[in-house]
Design brief:
It is a single chain. The protein has 1 helix and 9 strands; from the N terminus they run H-E-E-E-E-E-E-E-E-E. It is mostly beta strands.
């Protein structure tokens, strides 16, 4: 049976992805050893407005990546959706700026951060969340046309 999972749970799901949660970016504009690229400070919400899509992992399902889409509006409101093997996820919340990253607050109490990286001209938004339903979740999202 399908069940509805909040956006916060999706973001948490994204945080669980193993290689995405550790090493900090290198200094002096160099990329990281884990291939994330160079961290790009987010100076306004407008720089991440739009549609983003990518894969996330659910806790306990490391070999079962889940496709997720996130839309960020210019007022800081986000919506995340995912049709997963365990059910449909529809989550909402708000983002705000803090020290070059985004702080994420889900409507259901989930919270986390999003950090923007660039490698070879390709942007990646690394989302790391903690939710009551899914625990820690990690997602790597790229701009979606």
């Amino acid at each position: 049976m399908l069940r509805v999972v909040s956006f916060s749970s999706l973001v948490v799901l994204l945080l669980v992805h193993g290689g995405c949660t550790s090493a900090a970016p290198g200094a002096g504009g160099r990329g990281t050893a884990d291939g994330r690229g160079t961290q790009v400070p987010v100076t306004n919400v407008g720089s991440v407005v739009g549609r983003w899509a990518g894969l996330s992992d659910l806790p306990g399902h490391r070999n079962d990546d889940q496709y997720v889409e996130v839309t960020v509006r210019d007022d800081g409101i986000y919506k995340a959706t995912s049709a997963r093997t365990i059910g449909f996820m529809d989550a909402r919340g708000r983002v705000q700026l803090s020290d070059g990253r985004l702080l994420i607050q889900g409507n259901d109490g989930a919270h986390g951060t999003a950090t923007l990286y660039s490698a070879g001209g390709q942007k990646t938004l690394l989302v790391e969340m903690v939710t009551a339903k899914a625990g820690n979740v990690t997602a790597r999202l790229r701009p979606k046309p």
